[in-house]
Amino acid sequence: MIRAIIFDLDGTLVHSLPGIAASLNRTLESYALPTHSESAVRGFIGDGMRVLIERALPHTLPDVNLDAMVTSLKHDYAQTWKDGTSPYSGVIHALHDLKKTDIGTAVLSNKPHVFCKTITDELFPETDFSTVIGQRDGIASKPDPSGALEVARILNTPAAEIAFLGDSTVDLITAKNAGMIPIAATWGYHDTPALQAEKPAFLMDQISDLLAILQKT
After folding, report:
1. Distance of alpha carbon 119 from alpha carbon 17, whole angstroms
2. Domain that holds residue 55
3. pLDDT score at 183
4. Per the structure, how many domains does the chain have?
5. Edge-to-edge strands of the sheet including 104-112?
6. Phi, psi torsion values for 125, nearest 5 degrees
7. Tell me: the pLDDT tens digits for 83-129?
8. Fewer beta carbons within 10 Å, N or C terminal of the chain?
9. Which residues, in sequence order, are CB contacts of 116 under 8 Å at separation 6+?
10. What CATH number is attached to the domain comprising 116?
11. Number of neighbouring beta carbons within 10 Å of residue 81
12. Residues 6 or more apart in contact with residue 161 via CB below 8 angstroms
């Protein structure tokens, strides 16, 4: 029986690629570095802002001040994320349906914690997530299970009774590492064959199917 669900944020609840790509490219331009298409940036997302920049840097680039670039990206993104970030179709309705049940909800992301809180507060004001946790200094990011198990403690729910819905292989591996039920969202930023290779418990093409899946397990 599934008693709670943890959601990834980018690529699962929100379509944030346009905002992330634009902010990343402005940061790269400020350092006179080459920029990338949205389709390329799609493949960079999922492991936090530092890794996002690392993946965007040219392979032949001399040493750069990566910490300064991360700071620049965070500053730009804080000012501009709304221009290119929106809930996926059906997400608000699905969260509304979940609110009528006894199923607990939470968010766990590799996006910096402050942005996770800001985005969920502003885009989902009527959803009372039990907790929203993003990347924090000194705390291992997904696929390390620490964050997922922290959420389980907050939810006061055994890990085996928690589903983890995400669009990336990182999310599915996190779920497995934490002993949770992995559910793959195909509408996000990882290709379906890669998700299938991780053998999720369920593969979802639309979030409107979520409640029926949770209630039949």
Report:
1. 14
2. 17-80
3. 98
4. 2
5. 131-135, 104-112, 4-7, 162-166, 181-185, 202-204
6. -65, -20
7. 999 999 999 999 999 999 999 999 999 999 999 999 999 999 999 99
8. N
9. 9, 107, 109, 132, 133, 134
10. 3.40.50.1000
11. 20
12. 1, 2, 3, 4
